[in-house]
Design a protein that fits this description.
The structure is a single chain. 1% of the residues lie in helices and 64% in strands. The chain is an all-beta fold. It has one helix at residues 58-61, and strands at 38-50, 69-84, 87-100, 108-121, 125-137, 155-167, 172-186, 196-209, 213-230, 235-251, 255-268, 276-288, 292-304, 310-327, 330-345, 357-369, 375-388, 395-407. The longest helix is centred in the first third of the chain and has 4 residues, at 58-61.
């Protein structure tokens, strides 16, 4: 229920929304029709109560029996797609600001934008070019090292550039290639040791038929490093090799599904960091009926991490979202999410916690009201629990939020 949604899902907030390395295969070129022209803008304000504003165990951090907080977030949200002849340009995301009533040091801008172009050329060839920028306060659930000069006040900045190109018609082979560059920067002096850069190269060959969908074989290579974790002989970082199969299909206008299954191998650059090899997968399925819409997502990937003492982690995610139209003016909402992270520590921070792994459980529901054509109100309640190998990282949090949205 948190974070901005962005065009094609290329740029997503990590922790608030998981941001995996770009090991997911490319979208099949030429299969799906481009979006129609639209220029949508909304103004919204969210009031959110958190029973645990620090996202940590009060019995361990010594903050006292109560660490609740109330946050207000006004924001401007954009979703723009404008065809220009055979080409098209787009801009999507949101700009907002978080105001906290209790923990005012967490007041911060909340920015997540992606813009670029969809290009067509040489008959049936297309390219997608995208620039992304995000800036927000670091998820407090990942900050457990306060003291000794460290602080829980840190803003992450993410810059990304991606381009992919491919050819293919409605029937036949579809070759494609892609490149993505992502840079993560931290405002806190002590957390700049976790600044990271990642370059990912992807290639894919698919075969498509209308009655079958598109079946593809893909391969990718990701080269990441932490430039401020460097010694005379090595730099902390990882090389990730991945390959596998992908399938995607639209069944009528109601159901779309896309999935991939592959194998990933991690080669750490720093001595002492364990290697990893195992399955990687992704699944997304969306159903849109007359009254109900359902979205199911699942993935397993390897990520570099902005957590202070981690070299990389294996991230597994599953989520289900549902919305039901009870009447023309009332929708019911529901969602559930599970996340498991298995951490591999950096040898350059020997005093770090032996994190092992953690598991996040999240369930929520709500109601959305449409009293006017351009006005809506959304009331949601959510319960989040983290179970970690290290007790310091356990927490429970109950959130209740009210959002008012005006469509411009």
């Amino acid at each position: 229920m948190r974070g901005f949604q962005v065009h094609r899902g290329v740029l997503r907030l990590r922790s608030a929304l998981a941001l995996p390395c770009a090991l997911v295969p490319l979208a099949a070129h030429g299969q799906a029709a481009r979006p129609t022209r639209h220029v949508d803008a909304t103004l919204s304000t969210t009031l959110q109560y958190d029973s645990n504003g620090l996202l940590s165990d009060s019995a361990v951090n010594g903050s006292g029996p109560s660490q609740s907080d109330l946050r207000a977030t006004p924001s401007l949200n954009l979703d723009i797609y404008v065809p220009v002849g055979r080409q098209a340009v787009f801009l999507a995301g949101g700009i907002g600001y978080d105001f906290h009533t209790r923990y005012k040091r967490f007041n911060s801008e909340r920015i997540n934008l992606a813009g670029g172009a969809d290009l067509s050329y040489a008959g049936n060839c297309t390219s997608h070019v995208e620039l992304g920028y995000a800036r927000y306060h670091t998820n407090l659930a990942d900050i457990v090292d306060i003291g000794g000069g460290f602080t829980d006040n840190n803003r992450e900045e993410r810059r990304s550039f991606g381009i992919d190109a491919g050819c293919g018609g409605a029937i036949g082979l579809r070759p494609s290639i892609g490149f993505r560059r992502e840079e993560v920067r931290n405002s806190s002096f002590f957390r700049r040791i976790s600044n990271d850069n990642t370059d990912t190269y992807t290639t894919q060959l698919g075969y498509s038929r209308p009655a079958l969908g598109t079946v593809s074989i893909y391969g990718s290579f990701s080269d990441g490093e932490y430039p401020n974790r460097r010694t005379a002989t090595f730099v902390d970082g990882v090389r990730i090799f991945s390959g596998g199969l992908q399938y995607e299909r639209a069944v009528g206008t109601r159901l779309t599904a896309r999935g991939s299954l592959g194998y990933s191998r991690v080669e750490p650059k720093a001595p002492g960091v364990p290697k990893y090899g195992g399955l990687s997968y992704s699944l997304s399925a969306t159903y849109r009926g007359d009254r109900i819409s359902l979205t199911a997502l699942g993935s397993r990937s390897v990520e570099q991490s902005n957590i202070l003492d981690i070299s990389y982690d294996i991230d597994t995610n599953f989520s289900l979202n549902a919305e039901y139209a009870l009447s023309p003016k009332v929708n019911l909402l529901g969602d559930a999410r599970y996340q498991r992270r298995s951490f591999r520590s950096s040898p350059l921070i020997p005093s770090s916690l032996a994190r092992g792994s953690d598991r996040l459980y999240d369930v929520g529901g709500g109601v959305r009201l449409f009293p006017r054509n351009r006005l809506s109100f959304t009331l949601e309640a959510e319960r989040e629990h983290r179970d970690a190998d290290v007790r310091l990282l356990n927490y429970n949090d109950t959130r209740v939020s009210l959002t008012a949205t005006v469509r411009l």
